[in-house]
C-alpha cells in the first residue's frame, strides 16, 4: 500500500479498491487531500473553496459497498453543493450558500463520494480561461505563467496536481475538454441526458452537459458510472447502461475503422498540435484499426453554435443584465446582448443548421466507428490573456473562435472523450478528443483506454506545479 504521503498519487480506481478492502480509510484520504491542497494549491489556485469539515462528517457514514466508497472529489463552482459556498465565479453570488445540492451532487454522494472542494471557474462559465473577480485566475501546473483554459480549469488543475482523485466538470463548447487537454488529464463530455442535473432553469437544454474529469480513462469511466442514471427531476435523463462503463475499460475492444481530422475542415489548428494528434491516432493501426483522414461536413456548425449559445445566455442570464449589469464581466454582457439581437428567423436558421449537421454526422458514423481530432487549437497561452486571438497567423473573429474544434462537436450532440496525446517541443500538454455518435460513451472509453496504454502518458500526472515567473 502507498505511504500516507503518497496517497495522492494513486489513481481513483486503485484508491477505491483500497477503500473497499479496508486497507485505507476515507479519513486517511481526506487527510492526504487536505495536505496536498495546502502544499500545492497556492501556486495554481484550483480549489478556492474547501469543505473538509462537511466531508469528514459524511465520511463517518461512508460505506465500503458503495461505488466510490468514501473517495474525496471536487465539484465545479457552477454546481450547487448544499451548505457550501457556491459563487458561479460572480461577485453577485460571492456569499451564496445553497440549501440544496444539485441532484448530480446528491447522486455522487449517494455513491460514496466525499465533496472536499469547489473548483474554480470563470464567471458563469463564460470564456475558455479560468479567472473571475471573486477568486482570481487558475494557473497551469505545467507552467504557472500560463492559462489552465476553461471553464473547468479548476477541476483539471486539481487533478493534474493530485489534490483530488476525481472531479466534476461541465461542457458547453469545450469547457471540460479544453482544460483537460491543457493539463494532460482526461475529461468526458457525455451525451446530453447521460448525467442528470437539476434544478435547472433550462431542463431541456442539450448544448450544456456535466461530466467526469480524471487522471486516467478508467477513472473517468468509474466517475461516469457514479454520475449516470435517470432522475424524475431531469426530463431528458437517460437510464444507466446495463453494463457499467468501467467494464468497457477493463475489457476494451478496438474499433474497426476510425477517422482522423486535424481541423474538422472548419478551423485553424496549431500545426504542432495537429501533428502530435495525428501521430497518436496512428498508434491504433498497430491493433489492426483502419485510420483514415476524414470528417463529417461541419459547415454551418460555427454559425449555429454562435446563435444557440447566445440564445442560451438570454434564457439563463438576461434577468441579471437588468438587475446587476455593473457586476457582470464584459464577456457575459456581450453574450447576452448578442442573444437579444437575434431574430426568430436567426434562431430558426440555427436549428435547421443543427438538424442538417446531425443528418451528415449520423451518415458519417455509419461508415466510421469513431472520429479523432485535436481537443485544442492552440497551446497553453499567458494567463493574463483573456483568450487566444491568433493561431498560425490566422486572426480569431471572436473570443471563442479558438475553441471551434470542440464546440462544433457540441452542436452535433455527440459525446467526446478528451485525453492526453503528447507534448509540444516546449514540454506543454497536447490533447486529442475521441468522438462518437450519441450514447456511445462505452465505445469512446474503450478506444481511449487502448490508446492511453499505447501512448504511456497517463503516469506523468500528478505533478508538482512548475512555478515560473
Structure description:
This protein has 469 residues and is an alpha/beta fold. It has one domain: Alpha-Beta Complex (Amidase signature (AS) enzymes), CATH 3.90.1300. 36% of the residues lie in helices and 13% in strands. It is built from 14 helices and 13 strands. The strands form 2 sheets. An 11-stranded mixed beta sheet has the order 1-3-2-4-6-5-12-13-9-7-8, sandwiched between helices. The chain has a two-stranded antiparallel sheet with strand order 10-11. Helix 4 links the parallel strand 2 (71-76) and strand 3 (113-119). Helix 10 (301-323) packs across helix 11 (330-340). The protein is globular, with a radius of gyration of 20 Å. The mean pLDDT is 97.
- What is the structural class? alpha/beta
Quaternary state of this entry equals: single chain
Mean pLDDT: 97
Tell me the number of structural domains.
1
**Structure summary, number of beta strands:** 13
Strand proportion, as a percent range, falls in 5-15%
Low-pLDDT runs of 5+ residues are: none
The strand line-up of the biggest sheet is 1-3-2-4-6-5-12-13-9-7-8
CATH topology: Amidase signature (AS) enzymes
Tally of helical runs = 14
General shape: globular
CATH class: Alpha Beta
> How helical, in percent, are the residues?
25-40%
Radius of gyration: 20 Å
Major pleated sheet: 11 strands, mixed
**Considering the protein shown, what is the CATH homologous superfamily?**
Amidase signature (AS) domain
Going by CATH, the architecture would be: Alpha-Beta Complex
Helix and strand sequence: HHEHEHEHEHEEHHEHEHHHEEEHEEH
